[in-house]
Amino acid sequence: MPEQRIYNPEYLYLTTTGWKSGSPHEIEIWYVPHGSCYYLVSGGGDKAHWVRNISHNPRIAFRVLGQRYEGSARVVDRQTEPALAEAVAGLMQAKYNWSDGWIVELCAT
């Protein structure tokens, strides 16, 4: 029988495709919803493997609050999208008391 994994509603479960391996990789990460998308923060910026994976292939899958989605991801440019970046950072700060890093947007298609 396959292992039944219990998911924590505090986290989003993101699956990216490895840019070198081509294999799926899942991470558990803090998130906030905003508008029709979900947002994550990478404390490691572009050094985080999941961010590197997204930069090579923006197609992703994710699970949150018992729902599974497929869609695309992108890094939010704080310089050209300051209002969005400020809103997401504020939500992350309120929820987790942390918002320092690259903001990544996940949108279901």
Describe this structure in words.
The structure is a single chain. Strands 2-1-5-6-7-4-3 form a seven-stranded antiparallel sheet, with helices on both faces. 21% of the residues lie in helices and 41% in strands. With 109 residues, the chain is of the alpha+beta class. The chain has one domain: Pnp Oxidase, Chain A (Roll).
Give me a quick take on this structure:
By secondary structure, the protein is an alpha+beta fold. The chain contains two helices and seven strands.
Layout of strands and helices, then pairs:
Layout: E1 11-17, E2 24-30, E3 32-34, E4 37-42, H1 49-56, E5 59-64, E6 67-75, H2 82-96, E7 102-108
Antiparallel strand pairs: 1-2, 1-5, 3-4, 4-7, 5-6, 6-7
Distance between the termini: 32 Å
Which fold name corresponds to the CATH topology? Pnp Oxidase, Chain A
CATH fourth-tier homologous superfamily: Electron Transport, Fmn-binding Protein, Chain A
Shape annotation: globular
Overall SS class:
alpha+beta
SSE ordering: EEEEHEEHE
What percent of residues are in strands? 35-45%
CATH top level is Mainly Beta
Radius of gyration: 14 Å
Instruction: Profile the largest sheet.
Output: 7 strands, antiparallel
Query: Can you count the beta strands?
Result: 7
Under the CATH scheme, the architecture is Roll
Mean pLDDT across residues: 94
Helix content: 10-25%
